[in-house]
Design brief:
By secondary structure, this protein is of the alpha/beta class. It has one domain: Dihydrofolate Reductase, subunit A (3-Layer(aba) Sandwich). Helix content is about 20%, strand content about 35%. It has 4 helices and 11 strands. The longest helix has 11 residues. The model has no long low-confidence stretch (mean pLDDT about 95).
């Protein structure tokens, strides 16, 4: 099972200047719970914005740079190679960035989308692709209201690929 996991705004904003736009502790806690013990695949820019391998996960960085290395991480030169490296994991997560998300969706690599929808619009330079409801079926949704720890209303939404 390959899942794309992302936090996006109402206008599909993902980030600005290679950084997250908002801070939602509930989203970070959920991300950790869902991805712990599994392979997480990401582009080089996403890794560099995080700055280190995340604990208790196998980090695979996708980069065209054949000389690129990072301690504690596996390096792949394509999404296909990264997926091959993670093939023994029953749950693989693609965690960004925008180019990797777009490529994975356009090339039919994902089985599910795990989206945190932030109920605001933000200025951004990286955006998540439109979710085509002819391809993706919403199977779960939990809505939350902003509180002292989470500044914005948000929803956790899970989509599965529609069977052909």
């Amino acid at each position: 099972m390959v899942t794309i996991i992302a936090a996006i705004a109402k206008n599909n904003a993902l980030g600005l200047n290679n950084d997250l736009i908002w801070h939602l502790p509930a989203d970070l806690k959920r991300f950790k719970k869902i991805t712990t013990g599994h392979h997480i695949l990401m582009g080089r820019n996403t890794f560099e914005s995080i700055g280190k391998p995340l604990p208790n996960r196998t980090t695979i960085i996708i980069t065209r740079n054949k000389e690129y290395t990072q301690p504690g991480c596996l390096i792949a030169n394509s999404l296909e190679q990264a997926l091959d490296m993670a093939q023994d994991d029953e749950k693989i997560f693609i965690i960004g960035g925008a180019q990797v998300y777009k490529y994975a969706i356009e090339n039919n690599f994902a089985d599910a989308l795990d989206i945190t929808l932030v109920h605001e619009e933000f200025e951004a330079d990286a955006f998540f692709p439109e979710i085509d409801e002819n391809i993706w079926d919403r199977v779960e949704r939990e809505d939350f209201i902003a509180d002292e720890n989470n500044k914005f209303d948000y929803s956790f939404i899970r989509f599965k690929k529609v069977a052909n």
